[in-house]
## 1
Amino acid sequence: MIIFEKIKETQEHLEKIKSKGLSIGFVPTMGSLHEGHLSLIREAKRENNYVICSIFVNPIQFNNKNDLKNYPREFESDIELLKNEKCDLLFHPSVEEMYPEPADEKFDFGGLDEVMEGMYRKGHFNGVASVVKKLFEIIKPDRAYFGLKDYQQLVIIHKMTKDFNMPVEIVPCTIIREENGLAMSSRNQLLSKSEKKQASLICESLKMVKIQTGYLSISEIKEMVKRQLRRHRSMKIEYFEIVDMYTLKPLMTWAESNHVIACIAVYVGKVRLIDNVILFS
Ligand code: AMP
């Protein structure tokens, strides 16, 4: 696996790859890789001739300094994991390389960023779109792979590529879970053993939501989730929303949409976790 830190050397190398007519699959990450990330790499390997992973902890998408400082970093073991998957190239730029000047582009997501993550993490999606746009411009992938775990991010990136007419296919990938159902996340390693056990309740609640969809009203379902998660004092719901899968507009009744997803953000102790379940589509 080739590892590049500089934009110029990456671009020069990729021009040669493209001149051979090879298709390029791209998996952007913030590192501290787990099976969720690796599933994206495998999907990219299946569908492309050449696979690139980026590892870049993007400071401008963090709205909380401590969150950025505490974000797990495991570069050496990440390299081994990527080598095992036969990833072809790892792009690992520094902050100075990516942002020689402060990023100042302002995106209009047409309201997609006004709910859920966007409401509680001001500026987060502008930071995500800035880095993904820049990475797409450097790498010019044919396909880019994103996890459904970060559902709102996926919808926003999809809109951005359409708005800027970027010739890249955005490929959504299923959520990979721990044995107890907890959605894999780099942040899971910040949980204590008992918190990890409690966190499985998030997925349990979402399973109940799926079972009760259509039987209970949306407000009854919201009450049910609150009641279930309140049982543990270390858990605090930041939001639980049932939204249209395309507009991300919160729904009041089931009749309002035929494409519905339930999304949740929960603090387990100091660690903020997100998860979701598609209810019907
Ligand atoms: P991150 O390193 O957290 O920025 O994630 C990089 C990519 O991996 C994003 O597209 C995430 O949605 C995806 N991802 C993270 N966790 C999972 C998971 N448990 N299952 C599938 N994809 C995931």
## 2
Amino acid sequence: MSRNRKQAALTKKSRNLKDFTYDELLDLVSGLGEKPYRAAQLYGWFFKKGARAIDEMTDISKVFRNTLKQGSYYIGLPALTGTKHSGDGTVKLLFELEDRERIESVLIPEEKRLTLCVSTQAGCALGCSFCMTGMYGPGRNLILSEMTGEVHVATGLVKEGLLKDIKRITNVVLMGMGEPLANYEEVLKFINVLTDPKGLGFSSGKVTVSTAGLTPGIKRLGRDASVNLAVSLNATTDQVRSQIMPINKKYPLGGLLAALMAYPLRRGKRITIEYVLMKDLNDTPEDARRLARLLRGIPTKINLIALNPPPGSPFKRPETECIGAFRKILMEAHYDVIVRASRGSDIMAACGQLRGREQKALTGKGA
Ligand code: SAH
Ligand code: SF4
């Protein structure tokens, strides 16, 4: 079958069972004349036992398996096309999707944690001028099976010893390629599967959604989920923020900060403020003082990240002393501040360096 026909067949007729929410799966099994417990059985096979094909689900009757196959249902996962290991222990996973789009996820081992950073889009339309994903332009929304697929494949690799002694992913951050809240519906389904004990089973306190500040999406997320929220603030005035993050023209700082102030947090939880420091642009003592004023009253912890300058970027990373001085001002204003180490920059896996397209060079494939 030609590639186009195969794709048409896949998109028009076949359905990846892992794109069904639990409720949709219940409807599907009852529509096929099966008892509701079949949905739980299928879910268990997808998310606990890691089934990769219908015939692996051996305690499901052959008749029902055949019904599923004849109905053109299948179990699909993103294809892992490579892994890249950084000198600091970070590992980047490269994936090709059914339509040959490419995405990346990153495994970041820290002391007691292993964090998986997942992509939610195959690019990003928001075009922040300091971010490589944004520089490479928009990409389509990822669907449920693709996002759970990133977790599934990464979990399998970790179990098999990819990171030697570390055998379990403890945290998931939606902080890879793309803007999660610009893909709201599928991301919400993904969060539900991630935090469903019948699904991937992460506690919602171990899941973080990072956004460039889509104010309406933040309000919705506050109503729909109880995961952690991280906001990429990156500037303290509308003028500078709009210059580096065009989305600020649509959702300026005033409304964004009001949404953060109103965000329903579970007890003891705080919003993470991400602030990428860029030399002479947003790194002055005046910026630090303004940031302290802007965040007053919002329960936050602040992550300062020194810019990983994209190639040809006009922006530069500040000097270490300057980062220290910025941090000190915030600490003196009683904020919790950490300077986040840039992990995986030698393999282009650090914040803002994911772009998917890199794999063309690695594999020689692609347009
Ligand atoms: N779109 C979402 C999540 C993906 S970006 C968001 O913007 O929050 C993840 C993080 O990488 C953001 O905090 C962003 O500010 C940061 N980032 C982007 N480009 C960067 C760069 N060149 N150096 C350091 N951090 C960067
Ligand atoms: Fe998109 Fe986030 Fe990069 Fe901005 S920083 S371009 S929102 S991925």
## 3
Amino acid sequence: MKDIVAIYPGSFDPVTNGHLDLIHRGAKLFDRLIVAIARNLDKGEPLFDLDERKEMLQAMIGDLDNVTVDIFEGLLVTYCIQQNANAVLRGIRAVSDYEFELQMALMNRKMEPRVETVFMMPAEKYSYLSSRIVREIAKLGGPLTGLVPEMVEQRVRQKVAQKQSVLVGTHPK
Ligand code: PNS
């Protein structure tokens, strides 16, 4: 039998219940799953730094003994080869995700044909959920119940309050 190691890459800023749903599905399918937080994202200033994201993910996957969390830099396919991984796991929530995911999967395959991308669907109730929406709702003081675990909700609220107070402090009246 083959030992299938999959990488689940992303920015996880912060981890959502949709991510956790996918991690649980992936943990059942693959022998080993590495949740890999990308360092070099061209996405503007993140809410959480990489170590904070890693710590929250680790706290959330404690019960899964074939799942680990890591931080990677550079090309995903290079990291896959370094980790002896044969698959990349990505979630597809809606048709709108498909075009970008297809482009990424095919480009990754062109660069590294030994690595296959596997798409999985999270539960329907998470199909509208993203880290970006969680950050936006939090900044505007809306409810996060059911979108992220309780511990992550507390961390998000603390972080948003901290960033907003820094902003207020540096802005002239
Ligand atoms: O959670 P995200 O932001 O959708 O994750 C995107 C991610 C991290 C998977 C993607 O940006 C990525 O793979 N970055 C690593 C750099 C890389 O390999 N880029 C070429 C992709 S074809």
## 4
Amino acid sequence: MAEAAVKLGSDAAQAELTDGFHLIIDALKLNGIENIYHVPGIPVTDLGRMMQAEGLRVISFRHESNAGNAAAVAGYLTKKPGVCLTVSAPGFLNGLVALSHATTNCWPMILISGSSEREIVDLQKGDYEEMDQLAIAKPLGKAAYRILHAEDIGVGVARAVRAALSGRPGGVYLDIPASLLGQTMDALQGEKSLIKVVEPAPAQFPSQVAIDRALNLLKSAKKPLIILGKGASYAQCDDLVKEFVEKSGIPYIAMSMAKGLLPDDHPQYAGAARSLVLKDSDCVMLVGARLNWLLSHGKGKQWGEPFTKKFIQIDIDPKEMDSNQPIDAPLVGDIESVLTMMVKGMDGWKKPSEEWTGAVAAKSAENVEKMSGKLMSNAVPMDFHGALGRLKRIFADNPDAVLVNEGANTLDFARSIIDMYKPRKRLDVGTWGVMGIGMGTAVAAAVETGQPVVCIEGDSAFGFSGMEIETICRYKLPVCIVIFNNSGIYRGTDTDPTGRDPGTTVFVPEAKYDMMMEAFGGVGVTARTPDDLERAVREAIASGKPTLVNAIIDPQAGTESGRIGNLNPQSVVQKKK
Ligand code: ADP
Ligand code: MG
């Protein structure tokens, strides 16, 4: 009797089938994926629907670049791969901007895209949206895989998850030809074929020799400096970073997205004395920060050259060492493991001299004092400082709010003016300094953290992803977008010397962006004074309603390319009239 029941049960199970759709969903869920950033269309419309029906949270966007940027920053925020699901060819190509962005920023992301059948693509027979997507994605991510058979979905998803998270994180492409989705197999076999990735990012300790070398160098420094980068905030070992910095007594600065890893009002924070510490320090310890263009490659007058410094660098990727300057003490490993060993070796640590820390603190205080007057400006039309002075207060009162920031002047001023108090609260243009991340980033920040999000956007930057305010309204996300509207790129004052067209960098003067928000049922406000601005943003945070504040800024207020105008090539030719 009992034997018969078992046999019957197994027959019934054998008769039960699963298919590619369900196996992909089950494999993602098995690996802890909860949210999917998506644009529906052939051949993945039903996959998106079924994901939603099976309990994944699916956020449908208006453009794949924004869905992809959301997935990329979701990876940064959660230390799990952010997943973006796109349609074939053009949708896939749009998603690649974000895949490259994720890889460049070292954030785990998986771009899953539907594609055409191999038989047609490989003979170039001309399919609907035909493209050899795998070949195109390969150089833009850490890895790229294609799954042809339902029984390989478990392996394909596992490889994508592990590739995205292991070592230096990055973007992974996963190609799913349309016919995979409908393929069926035995449900039990299917379940068994799925893989839950075990320890995708294992602890990686450096040798004790490397630790001793670094500690000795740091000990012998007279004017040491620590630079925290977004690798350190990604690592999510916030208390350990704090313990290390405080035990060391060394002044530190934070790269843009590492702001708030320790609160920006920390006594050792030297952000306001950045020029001084970069120039005068004799030993610099990089913690999850790269000596790339954002740090002038560690070279030049800014770094006090010809005087040379010693460098210590913690990075998960051994190839990062010596990429710009010789690294005297490389610490290859994950930040948590490395700092655990460093802290162990610091018993009886002697903090740097009062002469150094005092000079840094004095310079900081002097610069903060210089700035404070400007931040009180009540000028109308508003300038950047007057507007940002008010937003600074709002973030001080709402330390859990997430700040999304892009633009040129709007980015540069906001970064230095607005203090962050908690880790991973400042999300911006990242390693590339790319425009267009705004609304995708805002959506992911709201979905992944559940906290209020305030976007400080240049009017130009906003335009790249502005249509997603419909997505923000549709999903009722607590996002307040403040547009710094100076009616143009850098400034709103350019003209066409021939008199035919508008200047190349200007927009419709005082465009009514707030009306766009109203079109989708959100709250739209025009703010002409710092008081208007402050009131509108505070109300938005309190209500949690999607809000767009159109902050009218003096068109004369900006400078060309913000703080990186030096990167513009200059023409030396004077054309004769
Ligand atoms: P920032 O722009 O803030 O300077 P970067 O993105 O340039 O930061 O640098 C981050 C660095 O952190 C990268 O080189 C990356 O390899 C490294 N990294 C990322 N995660 C970890 C980790 N868990 N442990 C150690 N290094 C990490
Ligand atoms: Mg502008």
